[in-house]
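Protocol step 6 of 9: fold each sequence in the batch and record its structure tokens directly after the sequence line. For illustration, a two-sequence batch is reproduced in full.

Sequence one:
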Amino acid sequence: MSKKEKNIEVNVKDLERNNQPLQQIFIGKRLIGEVIAVDSRFQATLFDGNQRFNAQSQEEGLEIILQQYHLHQH
């Protein structure tokens, strides 16, 4: 039996906090995480479980958040 594909709406908002750029990642209207520039690297934070990951780029941080969210989603 094959699984039915689901379309998931992912939105990314570019903001600034304390003169530091960041991206907030939403699934639907739910904020699931953010990616913040830290020196020359990026820190990705998944709010469910308050997990933090290091990334080389904003794109990698976004991918990590989405992967971890879907991995741990019930």
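Sequence two, same batch, same settings:
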Amino acid sequence: MAAHGQHVVSEGLGTSEDTMRAVVHERYGGAEVLQLARVPRPEVSDRAVLVQVHAAGLDRGVWHVMRGLPYAARLAFGLRRPKHPVLGFDVAGTVIAVGRSVTRFAEGDEVYGFGEGTFAEYATVPEGNLARKPTNLSFERSAIVPVSAVTALKGLRSAGKLRAGQHVLITGASGGVGSYAVQLAKALGAEVTAVASTTKLELVRSLGADHVLDYTYEDFADGARHYDLILDIAGSPSIARLRRALTPNGTAVIAGGEDGGKLTGMSRQLSALAISPFARQRLTSFVGSVRTVDLEQLTAYIEAGTVTPSLDRTYPLEQTADAMRRLDAGEVRGKVAITI
């Protein structure tokens, strides 16, 4: 499979049972580096399943891999060029083969989860990163759940230790993670204030936010209100601003590394961890990982109607670059899905 270092095959070659269509990048850069190509089909390992991909989610994590940013991440991505040319993490599809040690899934199961190289017709996914697809969701909506929704859940519950009745502020509330965070915070019993741009305020209201702030002219740190928990997804407020908006014993959780520059992408997280031991307020961050237990918890919320994925629109595989350009421009409300 190209995602494990094998060579990309020319799109001009005929179709074969041994190859598949995939979106690849052979160098780092913007959406212009993405190309549709034929690559070797993956082989299933002992503890993984082979999924026929029906849809894959696009998120900022894919953007970082495409760009090779922050530079420190190239130790994993590949120093000079991508080690894993096929992009994509979120996946929803049908199991067509299982490894010898797999016990939880069988051929024909409809699943969703977190893999590697999912912008392709087929992908191998570790058994522990998968769950059965919610019965009330399409493949397209299922595909935009795993990374973003699990990040939101862990940011609120595990890192943020959210309790019912607390006042929560969510920055970047109209994005992939934020759109889930608003709904999950409400489900966990919080009073939610959502921060978004003017054109996206109605979206966050529709997700259940109790209050909305337009960041183009309103400052959440102006002292008008203080919050027990801030889930900062937008990636731009300084640590000082976050602290000004917190209650004396409040918690700020920094998700993602958007502001951290091209070198490490972690400057605010490192600052928060350095300050936190000397402050009454708790400043923290976390690294998300998608596991079956997390997905099953989200499935329960989704099937109960408590959480609904916010799907902006879908793009066929060959238009992945167009979808990436919209994501890069900040035009996406919720998330987009790539359909195969």
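Proceed to step 7 once all outputs are recorded. Observation for sequence two: Residues 2-145+310-339 form a domain with the Quinone Oxidoreductase; Chain A, domain 1 fold (CATH 3.90.180.10).
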